[in-house]
Amino acid sequence: MVTFRVGYGVVNCGTSGNQGRPGLKLGCLSLQCVEATLDMEQRVLKKLVKSISSTVESFKKSEIECLIRIFHSLVKRADVRLDNTGLDRNAFQAILHSVFGMTDNMLMNRVFFAFDKDNDNYINVKEWVKGLSVFLRGTFEEKLKFCFEVYCLNGDGYISREKIFDMLKNGLHQQSPEEAIDERIKELVDIALNKMDYDNDGKISFSDFEKAVKEDRLLLEVFGPCFPEAKNCLDFEALAF
């Protein structure tokens, strides 16, 4: 049985095919394969795997078990039942940055809320696995919906002119005077709305976004990165599974 160490603790991968594999460096966090065990209640683990596998088709049961073990180690609260623990926003953003190489604080914050489906400000184990299924192996449709949810900064179902401005400004390096940057961003906002606002109501609905992205898939992450780079995803899978 092989495990790796993820900054905060030892994570049991539940597999044996990677013995002897050297540690990988993902972002700022070192994931190092070590021989160890993680004390988990098997009955609870099997129940969770069965429950999650009924709603997540992109992972095998053995992979879901691995992700549950990783989650349990990251949360690191042995005094709380496995199915009642959660990652708060700071812990989750640290994982996005260190493991998956994401750096945009505004969008990482929104990714947290896209994972947190029950809006309790914690990511539970089911939300963790479901979210990673989109991150790592999501279909085009799943990723389209995820990006739109990330870009809806206040959750009202629309991407407004003001939201687009904030996201684009957040993503630009401040290499010019503030006034010059703002004028350039306003021009980019106008271009985005002209291309994606099909009903000309001054904001982008999901229908608008879906139509635009299906016509040009390069627009999927037009307002900033919602997903890790492919290499970081592959590295995580190679070590975790």
Automatic annotation (TrEMBL):
Q: Which Pfam families match?
A: EF-hand_5 (PF13202), EF-hand_7 (PF13499)
A single GO molecular-function term is: calcium ion binding
- Keyword Calcium part of the UniProt annotation: yes
Keyword field contains Transcription? no
Query: CDD domains given for it?
Result: EFh
Top-level lineage group: Eukaryota
Query: Which UniProt keyword terms apply here?
Result: Calcium, Metal-binding, Repeat
Instruction: Note the InterPro entries from the entry.
Output: EF-hand-dom_pair, EF_Hand_1_Ca_BS, EF_hand_dom, Recoverin
Descriptive protein name? EF-hand calcium-binding domain-containing protein 1
Source species of the chain: Camelus dromedarius
